[in-house]
Amino acid sequence: MDAQLKKGLLEICVLAFLQRGDSYGYEMVKNISPLLPISESTLYPILKRLETSQSVHTYTKNHQGRTRKYYQITPQGNERITEFLTTDWPQLTMIQRFIKGGV
């Protein structure tokens, strides 16, 4: 899959995963990888961008004596998913039909 297309889809997949509940990096990699291959070195820059755009919020929590960074979706993150589903996804569907030879 094209790297730029994959990057955009990964951002939406991360946000969609966080809609199910707060999570940390390794858990996201484990759950998203079956859909789109992703490594931690790919995930963390995406999470940083999402944090910068205020689509996710971070906090730390102790887990078995270690501090773990958790990510939580924000209202802006939910809006991005809604925008993707109402604007971007229909456009991608039209592009797919065009590529297959339809209109």
UniProtKB/TrEMBL annotation:
It holds the Pfam family PadR. InterPro entries: Metal_resp_DNA-bind_regulator, Tscrpt_reg_PadR_N, WH-like_DNA-bd_sf, WH_DNA-bd_sf. It comes from the Bacteria. Residues 14-82 form the Transcription regulator PadR N-terminal domain. This is Transcription regulator PadR N-terminal domain-containing protein. It comes from Candidatus Enterococcus testudinis. The lineage of its organism: Bacteria, Bacillati, Bacillota, Bacilli, Lactobacillales.
